[in-house]
Amino acid sequence: MKMVWLRFLVLSLFMVLLSARGIPDPPPGARLKFTVGVEGIVYCKSCKLPGYIANIGMSPIPGATAILRCRTNITNAISVPIKTNSEGYFLFQTSQLTSFTSSNCRVYVTNSPLSKCNVPVYPGPRGSNMLKFERAFTVNNGIEYLYSSGAFVFQPKKGLRCP
């Protein structure tokens, strides 16, 4: 009986927090769907490639593979790859992550498709960023929680010129 009350209390608190964030309550009897979005961007530092952004001195890397990995234990794990678009941006959107917390998940971009800009600078050789909560918003019949993995930065090897 204690578990029932605890669940009720947690769900009630959750609904209060959602309404406090400006997210409307679902219609009575509706089943609320939760999805998770994770976004990020991949750059090449110091190279003036298409899409070069002068104020940060970097160019987007299209076609880089970002991998979202979530794990709570050996049997409860997921790994989802996605390619960056022409602006170096990626966005994972899935309902498969609702059993994980953001601390269970990391995004990896371990290499660049550009052979002359493939030395990882940030977050470094391990290529992993923690997720940062950005916002929650309504989509269709549910709520999406959007997280950011931030930027991944590569540069040319020492002594090599930019492509």
Automatic annotation (TrEMBL):
CC per GO annotation: cell periphery
Keyword GTP-binding: no
Signal peptide: 1-20
Keywords: Signal
Superkingdom of this protein's organism: Eukaryota
Pfam families in alphabetical order: Pollen_Ole_e_1
Full protein name: Pollen Ole e 1 allergen and extensin family protein
Protein species of origin: Rhynchospora pubera
